[in-house]
């Protein structure tokens, strides 16, 4: 979609748009039943007025090439292809709509889409800013890599032995004793959840998770028929799990350190209580620990360090700390579990990038990773304080928040329930992208997940002021 | 599983094995219900006699730590944990057995497992030999990469724009006109199939494929409830598709160039006939074209080059040609289809390795890839001729085959139906790993997929002689 109308052309802008749409239909890119982008989206992309787009669409409708369906949008008409070229054509839209996997929520699709646009200020992005990524050091480290032919073939089902060896040592510092057989390398923690969902749980299993929860913003468990039960944090420690425990298989998903989206961490005592309860109830724990390295002050080791019963599936990653582009994470679990998940990974994508694995092994084993983390924590802390100061100055009367203890996020709570989709869209129209609380807890209209990690300081300030202006 | 008994220890070998098994149970690695490897597997791994393993297992059974279940193997006993440490413990085996995704077939699990062992001669592996991989050139090219901070963050849903741009040009040479919006970067062709299965087909859709078929050796469609109908190659061109076409959605999977496992290619006329039939019947075509670059003599362009109706989902990859460790492939399709598949990929693994994408873009755009391919084809041709000469000398009386036209495989057909699981296991016991025909067509007991691409020339000769000896 990089095409734009040419203002020096002999054709008018709307004629050019008509031709462009026709050409997409002609070359079978937009097949019968394809839903067109909205007028606003097209206007934004072409950088023209909506009225110009409307003029073009009206002409195409009059020609019978596209048609409106009330309430659902504008589509390539059933006879369009016949009219243009007189040929039969597949209806891909029908295929898409009847297929198995759920689409992302619309708000999340919009987030994914707008995160690619340079002019958008991203106030909620769960990703390190380009300026925080160690790009030059990574480039340098590529020069130092020496490859073995065996290392760039298909990797063993569990992933590179070298990287697993390095991780064994690394995890020891976090109080986790493990061995080569107990580690599976994955392409990031999202894939870890996907593999667990299809490889360890029967359909209809219960997935307990904290409320609000990152799990609500993705589909890993929902799309394969699991039943989600979200429980507020404090109730998890009392009798909620016991009361809700079903006859069915169940599992608890949690982020005990720097929770996404709230930023909270459990104390060691709380972790112990949770572990003991789950052990007694025989509920396996999925411990998502991808933010741990970003604690401004180290607090307590992961739940996995307490695990004497093989009950905890531990997930780590370098996506939040080194580079998401590497797509490298890991699961630590009993070896039959790892064997099973490795078998499924082999059926899904035959393993993760050998090059990425090599880079991560090199960074961790050389100590470069730890050094980078120390700097990164400092930088994130500075950013957190900067945002907190802006909040202090301008948001004190309308919202509350907790001082960040690390990671990326401030869970900003507005006194009034104003964070709805309308606000999300209004902000987007002003080029500000937020992660609204309702993607983490559908009923929540009070929160925004602010991220101080992505946008530049200047953009953060500008975005927060736009937010303030639109709220008032 | 790298542990081996220490022959200089004060303990006997079998005592060491007993201790080792106990320690795995104690540290919750083998939880209750875990199935132990077979005696033979343990003996192989420990490099000891089976009788020693048996002695150890007998002792563990007598202690009540493990138990045999007739016909299904030896398992960690229900009370083992209590006996060792007196604690409750999760039964992971139960979780694994009741979960959603099918395990790989046993023969394929054995293949995956033994492909990791250096002493095994691999006669069927669908992978380039380490000596054919351009390891040093890849290492060199890493030194030349300059990274942009944006390039190592999360990539756009469809994958690196740079790589997609490079592919547009590259595919033009194959007669495929496409654009940025029509390409999705994936982590190899297996992932492409996975995404198509869950993103474009309704449950119970019919997947037509050639008989024998690579699809039978993987589970992408079967594991999500598709109905597989395999049709012999020649019948596909007559009325078989028409007769078998159901009311249900259906799709045709094919490898028109250097088919896996048979090595055959369709002529341009046959491709045209197939395309026209599918167009008339409105059956989308999945064209798996990952071996095309390995044709010894270029024949005809892909079916996709004929596609005027947006009917063909085209799959390419560098796994067979450059390095499987990169985990990079691509799908070319109409943009609504690509948008849909990209959305699902974002829900699965948030994109492929940015580093791998960068490397592939660099190799293709610099022309290095084409140069490498020219050399590679020469080397593969030499290997094919070498193997064909051995076959000519020793297999003429018992088998038939077709001279290879490219790629990796010779589809060796024995006059007698001797290629069963017993032969597979017997060969494995002699350290020779084959890909038996029955993993591509369950009823087939005549074929072996010979690969001249992986093992060294010497190993190929040795392996073929072992095969000959065991058959006779």
TrEMBL record, chains A, B:
<keyword id="KW-0804">Transcription</keyword>
<dbReference type="InterPro" id="IPR036390">
    <property type="entry name" value="WH_DNA-bd_sf"/>
</dbReference>
<dbReference type="InterPro" id="IPR000524">
    <property type="entry name" value="Tscrpt_reg_HTH_GntR"/>
</dbReference>
<dbReference type="InterPro" id="IPR015421">
    <property type="entry name" value="PyrdxlP-dep_Trfase_major"/>
</dbReference>
<dbReference type="InterPro" id="IPR015424">
    <property type="entry name" value="PyrdxlP-dep_Trfase"/>
</dbReference>
<protein>
    <submittedName>
        <fullName>HTH-type transcriptional regulator YisV</fullName>
    </submittedName>
</protein>
<dbReference type="Pfam" id="PF00155">
    <property type="entry name" value="Aminotran_1_2"/>
</dbReference>
<keyword id="KW-0805">Transcription regulation</keyword>
<dbReference type="InterPro" id="IPR036388">
    <property type="entry name" value="WH-like_DNA-bd_sf"/>
</dbReference>
<dbReference type="InterPro" id="IPR004839">
    <property type="entry name" value="Aminotransferase_I/II_large"/>
</dbReference>
<dbReference type="Pfam" id="PF00392">
    <property type="entry name" value="GntR"/>
</dbReference>
<feature type="domain" description="HTH gntR-type">
    <location>
        <begin position="11"/>
        <end position="79"/>
    </location>
</feature>
<keyword id="KW-0032">Aminotransferase</keyword>
<dbReference type="InterPro" id="IPR051446">
    <property type="entry name" value="HTH_trans_reg/aminotransferase"/>
</dbReference>
<keyword id="KW-0238">DNA-binding</keyword>
<keyword id="KW-0808">Transferase</keyword>
<dbReference type="InterPro" id="IPR015422">
    <property type="entry name" value="PyrdxlP-dep_Trfase_small"/>
</dbReference>
<comment type="similarity">
    <text>In the C-terminal section; belongs to the class-I pyridoxal-phosphate-dependent aminotransferase family.</text>
</comment>
<keyword id="KW-0663">Pyridoxal phosphate</keyword>
């Amino acid at each position: 979609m990089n095409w734009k109308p040419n203002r020096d052309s002999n054709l008018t802008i709307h004629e050019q748009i008509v031709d462009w749409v026709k050409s997409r239909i002609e070359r079978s890119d937009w097949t019968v039943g394809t839903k067109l982008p909205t007028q606003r989206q097209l206007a934004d992309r072409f950088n023209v007025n909506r009225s110009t787009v409307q003029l073009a669409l009206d002409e195409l409708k009059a020609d019978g090439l596209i048609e409106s369906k009330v309430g659902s949008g504008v589509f390539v008409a059933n006879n369009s292809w016949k009219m243009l070229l007189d040929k039969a054509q597949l209806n891909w839209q029908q295929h898409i709509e009847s297929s198995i996997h759920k689409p992302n929520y619309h708000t999340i699709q919009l987030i994914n889409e707008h995160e690619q646009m340079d002019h958008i200020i991203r106030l909620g992005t769960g990703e390190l800013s380009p300026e925080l990524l160690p790009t030059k050091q990574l480039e340098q480290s590529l020069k130092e890599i020496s490859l073995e032919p065996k290392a760039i073939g298909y990797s063993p089902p569990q992933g590179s032995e070298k990287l697993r060896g390095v991780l064994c040592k690394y995890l020891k510092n976090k109080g986790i004793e493990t061995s080569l057989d107990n580690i599976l390398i994955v392409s990031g923690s999202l894939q870890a959840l996907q593999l667990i969902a299809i490889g360890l749980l029967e359909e209809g299993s219960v997935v307990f998770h904290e409320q609000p929860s990152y799990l609500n913003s993705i589909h890993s468990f929902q799309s394969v028929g699991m039943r989600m039960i979200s429980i507020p944090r404090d109730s998890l420690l009392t009798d909620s799990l016991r009361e809700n425990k079903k006859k069915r298989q169940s599992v608890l998903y949690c982020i005990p350190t720097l929770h996404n989206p709230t930023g909270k961490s459990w104390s060691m005592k709380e972790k112990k209580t949770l572990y003991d309860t789950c052990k007694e109830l025989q509920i396996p724990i999925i411990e998502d620990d991808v933010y741990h390295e970003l604690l401004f002050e180290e607090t307590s080791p992961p739940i996995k360090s307490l695990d004497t019963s093989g009950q905890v599936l531990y997930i780590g990653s370098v996506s939040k700390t080194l580079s998401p582009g590497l797509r490298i994470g890991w699961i630590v679990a009993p070896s039959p579990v790892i064997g099973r998940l490795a078998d499924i990974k082999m059926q899904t994508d035959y393993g993760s990038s050998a090059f990425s694995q090599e880079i991560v092994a090199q960074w961790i084993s050389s100590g470069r990773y730890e050094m980078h983390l120390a700097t990164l924590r400092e930088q994130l802390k500075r950013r957190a304080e900067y945002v907190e100061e802006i909040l202090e100055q301008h948001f004190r009367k309308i919202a509350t928040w907790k001082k960040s203890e690390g990671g990326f996020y401030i869970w900003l709570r507005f006194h009034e329930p104003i964070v709805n989709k309308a606000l999300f869209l209004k902000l987007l129209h002003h080029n500000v992208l937020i992660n609204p609380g309702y993607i983490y807890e559908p009923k929540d209209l009070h929160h925004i997940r602010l991220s101080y990690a992505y946008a530049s300081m200047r953009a953060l300030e500008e975005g927060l002021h736009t937010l303030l202006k639109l709220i008032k």
